[in-house]
């Protein structure tokens, strides 16, 4: 569950909306919201794109720092 909190925190720290991030990931907002709430597992491709977007490592994103 830690990854989902970190994904939300990074988004909020960068003053982005769920809609903006969903558009960046080319997905519907409802799908992204499920990732952020931990209702769906975040796919590796999306985790990589988010890590690149926020300029953090995948280890940081998943709490392995």
Shape estimate? globular
H and E order: HHHHH
Please tell me the overall pLDDT.
93
Helical coverage, percent range: 55-70%
Radius of gyration: 10 Å
Q: Please count the beta strands (DSSP E, at least 2 residues each).
A: 0
Runs in which pLDDT lies below 50 for 5 or more consecutive residues are none
Key descriptive features of the protein:
single chain, mainly alpha, 5 helices, 66% helix, globular
Blueprint (SSEs and pairs):
Elements: H1 2-13, H2 18-24, H3 29-37, H4 44-54, H5 58-61
Helix pairs in contact: 2-3
Account of the 3D structure:
The chain has helices at residues 2-13, 18-24, 29-37, 44-54, 58-61. The model has no long low-confidence stretch (mean pLDDT 93). α2 crosses α3. 66% of the residues lie in helices and 0% in strands. The protein is mainly alpha-helical and 65 residues long. It contains five helices and no strands.
Structure in a nutshell:
This protein has five helices and no strands. It has helices spanning 2-13, 18-24, 29-37, 44-54, 58-61. The chain has 65 residues and is an all-alpha fold.
